[in-house]
Design brief:
By secondary structure, the chain is an all-alpha fold. The protein contains seven helices and no strands. It is globular and about 55 Å long.
Length: about 150
């Protein structure tokens, strides 16, 4: 069952249960996936779907931090609820320990020794953790081990 099929089934269920917020988020995700498919001129691979979900999650996390900075707790709470729904469709997230281990191994693979190698390390890590870890967390671990 593809992600789009899951979204369609969950959308029907959300309509039946009159869950307006969940329905709204599912429709946004579905639209983002369909737009990406149109842009690519075909069906999406699982990797493409993960890319779209990651982009949607990043947008919501960015919005959340902006709302919190502005003191708009009402809007921040709405975005937190959306994040929970998007996480349901995203791949299982790596723990900090797993992510830290991947960073250590990748630094050793690349032979990185200083902050000048930051770009090389990030370029190797990001495809490995795509959709499974937040880029800021990866960034922090790489900086920690290269300084």
């Amino acid at each position: 069952m593809t992600l789009l099929d899951n979204l369609n089934e969950d959308m029907k269920q959300a309509m039946r249960n009159k869950e307006k917020e969940k329905l709204s988020v599912i429709r946004m995700l579905k639209a983002a996936l369909q737009n990406e498919a149109i842009n690519q001129g075909g069906t999406l691979s699982e990797d493409d779907e993960i890319t779209v979900l990651s982009r949607e999650m990043k947008q919501r996390r960015d919005s959340l931090s902006e709302f919190e900075k502005a003191g708009r707790e009402d809007l921040a709470e709405k975005v937190r609820a959306e994040i929970v729904i998007v996480e349901h469709y995203s791949p299982k997230q790596l723990t900090d320990d797993e992510l830290e281990e991947i960073v250590k191994v990748t630094i050793a693979e690349v032979g990185a020794t200083s902050k000048a190698d930051f770009g090389k390390v990030m370029g190797k890590i990001m495809p490995k953790v795509k959709g499974k870890a937040d880029g800021n967390a990866v960034n922090n671990f790489v900086k920690k081990y290269l300084s």
